[in-house]
Design goal:
Blueprint: H1 8-21, H2 41-49, E1 54-56, E2 66-67, E3 70-73, H3 75-83
Parallel strand pairs: 1-3
Antiparallel strand pairs: 2-3
């Protein structure tokens, strides 16, 4: 696929793996730290609230490289980390 370089089947397997490992956060944390696109603050808040180690987005231009220990990664770069 365009963003991941994976086939449809590989994408489906990847998405299922993410679902298997994911959990919901309460959504109670509110941040106001991203100024380029303030709507992205909810994504960063979810990552912080969920104690994420990485935030994977194709929109890294609106995020810092790291926030409170959370590394901001492009999908392809994150997939490479999973292969290590």
């Amino acid at each position: 696929m365009k963003f991941t370089g994976l086939s449809l089947k590989e994408n489906a397997q990847y998405i299922q793996e993410v679902k298997n490992r994911a959990y919901m956060t309460s959504g109670s944390l509110t941040l106001n730290v991203l100024t380029k696109d303030p709507d992205d603050n909810i994504v960063l808040a979810c990552a912080e609230e969920g104690k994420a180690t990485h935030l994977v987005t194709g929109n890294i231009k609106d995020f810092p490289q790291e926030y409170k220990g959370i590394k901001i990664e492009k999908p392809g770069d994150f997939l490479k980390l999973l292969e290590e």
